[in-house]
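Final report, section 2: Outcomes. Of the targets proposed, diguanylate cyclase is the one most frequently requested by collaborating groups, and we therefore present its record in full.
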Amino acid sequence: MQPASKRTLDHSQQRGKSGLRDPHRRILMRIIFSVTAVTLGLFSSLQFTAGNYWLASLEAFGCLALVVGMFRIGTSPYLRRWIIGYLIPTFSFLVLITVVPKASSTAFVWAYAMPVLSYLLLGKKAGLLLAAPFMFAIAAYHAVMFGDFDDPASLIDLFNPLICGLVILLFIHLYETMRAEAEDELVYHAETDALTGLPNRSRFQATYDRTLEEARRSGIQFVLALMDIDHFKSINDSLGHDAGDIALKTLASCLVQRLRSTDFVGRLGGEEFGLILRDTDMHSAQKLVDELRQRIAAMPIFYAGEKFHLTVTFGIASWPRDSATTTGLYQSADRRMYLGKHRGRNTVVSDDAAEADSQHECQQLRANNAD
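The predicted structure is given below as tokens.
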């Protein structure tokens, strides 16, 4: 059960990526941009005073670019490009201030900031690939310029920063590996229904919102299906809650196995489930959902020597035919699901026909927590 449900969650969330998540990356990049802009502005003034006009101009240009970036990074869809566009010039500049004539002998210490920034902003693999060459370049130059291989005391001074840099790089790599794994585990448990292993209501809602936004941009329609188990309360009352738990697990497994990799399913609470069928019209979705309904009805469930079956009722609504908003589409599917309950259960309802005559009964079903 666990592997199947994880596939459903992994598809939508892309778990396993290291580094900070996008909202945190944006916040951190704004802070970095602002701090770097202030720093470059200050150093530009100092360089101009010292007569290094070309370096002062370069730093002033960088300061201006970062100010623009502070306002763009929050909403830009090209976040990774902004990050790489910042890190490569920044790391190149750190190499430059190390190798310029009359450079400070301690300028190399800025290399220690490289793995911290690159790992947080790009993740473990890309961060290592970006930071390592720059750190190696600074280390090689420092060794050539300041190393006296015939003097033991000089070798100590040379190897101290080199070994320190290697230890920092190794520590950051191990830390990011463990941090990413721990965060993934926390997020998985926070967004997963403990009983069925399916995404919970919170995760389903986030995926639903994102799916609608993607549909608005691409124009590709999708279908929302809400499903409720018929007479589930009677199963708990007659066979016990353990039997009900087994029924929920078996049903969840059936849903995951039948749906396509592009679809999404979650447990919304109790005996109610939600399905997002992407790139699908109403006709195709109705066939798929009705096949699911029949498969569930034919599926035997065993508990304590007893065999029983489930039936389910679906209400489905298509974007943008039934509504162009998340709330409106959900209400359409929910209304049709309860309409199916009123019509006798074990059915799929994809339209609002006869809704006016049964609206009162549907509301009564909700109020009475119908099975």
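The chain has two domains: 20-189, 199-361.
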